[in-house]
């Protein structure tokens, strides 16, 4: 791990341990918070952690990757119940100055037996970071934002696709069945805008805004790429509360 990747792992672990030293990586003069359940700054983070019953939290970071000034992590949490989360931290002059996240209640295993976090954890093909980010950005724009399903085969090779969404089975066939079931149930999913594309080697994370089942929603999708095709996918889906309920005014994105 890079120094900043390790700093993020240590910081997240403080939710479980209560250790104070790793928090020093946060710039106390500038900490912009996009978790809408927490007030801005270090005080907001402290208040959120103080609300946890002592000894109740568990944190297991499964993946952590750095892309320039950003570090993104994929973590198995248990605080106020089991959750899977993606966290993004922005560094400036060696300190964390901004944080985004997306949390979903833990579910699964999915129809193919995968959990929301299992699978490869180490980045490879570091020389292909830029091309893999371009590929994933094109996939999200073509398929998820614009619904150009006829292009799906250009990005995913048949059933050579491992799925970690708790409701969807592996492969294009599993995705097709899930979309049919959603349509039959009258559930719609729409991606409207991609806010961030971050990557390291064969792993690429996108943070997108849209709607799911009629609710304003944040979608975080992590993709693993191999030989120019998307071969694995993890995600979290979180409803965005009404602005009147926000504890900061920085917005989700």
From TrEMBL:
Record field: transmembrane: none
Superkingdom field: Bacteria
Chain residue ranges for the region called Disordered: 104-123
Compositional bias per record (Polar residues), positions renumbered to this chain: 104-115
Domain SnoaL-like: 136-233
Xref: InterPro entries: NTF2-like_dom_sf (IPR032710), SnoaL-like (IPR037401)
Name assigned to this protein: SnoaL-like domain-containing protein
Organism field: Pseudaminobacter soli (ex Li et al. 2025)
Organism classification: Bacteria, Pseudomonadati, Pseudomonadota, Alphaproteobacteria, Hyphomicrobiales
